[in-house]
Please model this.
Amino acid sequence: METRQLLETGMIEEKLEDSGAQEVEYSMTFLDESYMPQIMDLQEIIVQNLSRQDMLQAFSYDFMKEHIGPKGFIMGIFAGKRLVAFRNVYYPDSQDAEWNLGIDIGIPDKELSRVANLQMVCVHPTFRGNALASKMNRHALRLLKEQNTHYHICATVSPYNFWNVRILLKSGFVIRKLKDKYGGKIRYVVYQNLKRPIQFEVETSISARLNDIEEQKKLFSTGLCGVALEQLAGLESAPREDLAGCFNVLFKKLKLDHER
Ligand SMILES: CC(C)(COP(=O)(O)OP(=O)(O)OC[C@H]1O[C@@H](n2cnc3c(N)ncnc32)[C@H](O)[C@@H]1OP(=O)(O)O)[C@@H](O)C(=O)NCCC(=O)NCCS
Model:
């Protein structure tokens, strides 16, 4: 990956301590190993600011570094010289039961070498609200499509991470499963196929609360997929910390391959 290649530039808002904001220039590029200290510092700030500690699986220095090179790539967004956001993509080994999320959702063995994960995304708290995660997802998915080696794209996200669930659904993923990962942390496994867009049976759709884990598990076990979030009427002004209680997940039935 050519690390100096500029992926995007523009203006974003930085929130200031006095509750004001200022416009700053940003640029998006790939990150090479020389940026590892900045990546790890930003991950640490994010971990310190999580509203629930189980929402993020922090990476060790060595595992983060593995994402740069043959096993993946990391893209970052700079405001001036400050790294304010990054997104990494990982190509897991076919038999890696922890990180090959294709195994979790039943992708056939011979296709597991085609799985890539949108692995971790972090935006500095003072730069949130600029859709930086969506912008990086868009470039990551475009690049994966152009490379054409990995087309089963997966990610995990906590059902309590309302913001990232919404971003992933808008980036074209559907929720295929809800299960314990990473030593007992509850996670959605989301999926999209860059070669064959997913199709649904139009007549089936049903909803469950975003924070009703047991009900959702039942729906996933019947072959339904989560496809959108719907805000519950009357709860529009609920506190940000409790957003998972204010949304339903809309489920639809996948059209099976042999029916298409
Ligand atoms: C998920 C994340 C990357 C999204 O950041 P983003 O791209 O800036 O999000 P958006 O621009 O789509 O934000 C839309 C709105 O939600 C708000 N928002 C986003 N993330 C938020 C969070 N974690 N807590 C509270 N509000 C948040 C934004 O401020 C914005 O509000 P506004 O419309 O009033 O300005 C960011 O929340 C984050 O870094 N979270 C911690 C790390 C994480 O959980 N990563 C995912 C798992 S790997």
About this structure: The chain has two domains: 6-198, 200-260. The two ends are 36 Å apart (CA to CA).
